[in-house]
Amino acid sequence: MMWEGRGWVSYLHIFLVSSLYLFGTTRAADSVIDIKKDNIDSVVAQNDVVFVNFYAEWCKFSRMLAPIFEQTATKIKSEYPQANRIAMGRVDCDKEADICAAYHISKYPSLKLWRSGQVAKKEYRGQRTQEAFLQHLHEQLKDPILPIKSVQENETPENKKKRAVYLHFASAQVPYWHNVQRMASYLRDECPFYVIFGSTGPASRPGQGDTVVFREAVGNQFNEDIYHGPLEDYNALNQWIYDRCVPLVREITFENAEELTEEGLPFVILFHKADDLKSAEIFKQEINKQVLGERNTVNFLLADGEKFSHPLAHLGKSQADLPLIAIDSFRHMYLFPNFNDITIPGKLKQFIDDLHSGKLHRVFHYGFDPNEPQTIQTIGDGDSAIKTGEHIPVQAGDQGKRAQAGGNSISPPESTFKKLAPSRNRYTLLQRDEL
């Protein structure tokens, strides 16, 4: 009888512990909103910040993330109990395929953030720990506009930003303040926003009144651009700021390479020396002149040739060959024949058109069409010269391969930047093509 009593007590203990565990788990899970087609618009509209996990039940990385995400939701809600301040949600992409397609989800888990009803340009790609999530969310909940006393104090060497928006406003009571806050929140990953209250305009134009100024560091100097449109016109001001904070030509780094690669657009890259500002400026000017209409079909990028020496070596080039332009299609790399030719009208556009038409790839596999005019580049000099297709870099060892292939087929190097794409050690990748 005594044994039976002890057994009953043991079973009761197990039941209570299990119940408490399940209650805690359920409570954590309840902190995360299940986002569906019928509630996504209201969730993102009603909350200042919304952090969403796009997942699939069968994905091992999604299963590993789930309890951490739920615990983070419980913790952040306890820190910010105010209604509509922050929400954390999840989308089951097997059940809500339309939502996931609308946001171009190509891997699980994908973590996206909404600020003031707008989805942020950048995904969260940091560590998947509660501490890292909380730190990220605390940053998102800070005021996106920082008050300062002067532009000069903010541009000391230790504080200098490459590009920033400065608001010279009399006070925060101006009717367009809320609009500017929305812009600053949306673009906080691209441009910091600073406000100088009580200012009557930038130093270059004192007495102008409330003014929005964009400043960009170019070498040791700053270029200043002033918005001249009506501050009450949200769409015009938003577009003006966006065009400057998110430039047509971006710099690729090891920190943003995964994000840029995941966009899926081929790279048109200028490799240059870090202190060579002239070639970068020429590159930008010619893109605006010749191929502005290609901004949605390729990514125009600047790369520090010293940091990205491996792709250069892959092209058979070195620091001594800079500046140079190449396309990385995520299959192969193709070399623009001569940087100085970039100013020839139509030359850069033809290079990109040859990528889109498949000509660059076709030459690689099948050689030149004998009926098509060819542009020949000679690499080397004297008897050792190697004649190749204009956009196909080769090394001396390729001659024998071409001869065996019939003398016309030339092998471009394989893509190196595809190796910087999202890793299968962190994600379940849905697209199994060039990425």
Automatic annotation (TrEMBL):
Residues 397-418 are annotated as: Disordered. GO terms for biological process: protein folding. Keywords: Signal. GO terms for cellular component: endoplasmic reticulum membrane; endoplasmic reticulum-Golgi intermediate compartment. Residues 21-142 form the Thioredoxin domain. It comes from the Eukaryota. Pfam families: Thioredoxin, Thioredoxin_6. InterPro entries: ERP44, ERp44_PDI_b_2, Thioredoxin-like_sf, Thioredoxin_domain. One of its GO terms (molecular function) is protein disulfide isomerase activity. Residues 1-28 form the signal peptide. This is Thioredoxin domain-containing protein. It comes from Ramazzottius varieornatus (Water bear). The gene is RvY_09030-1.
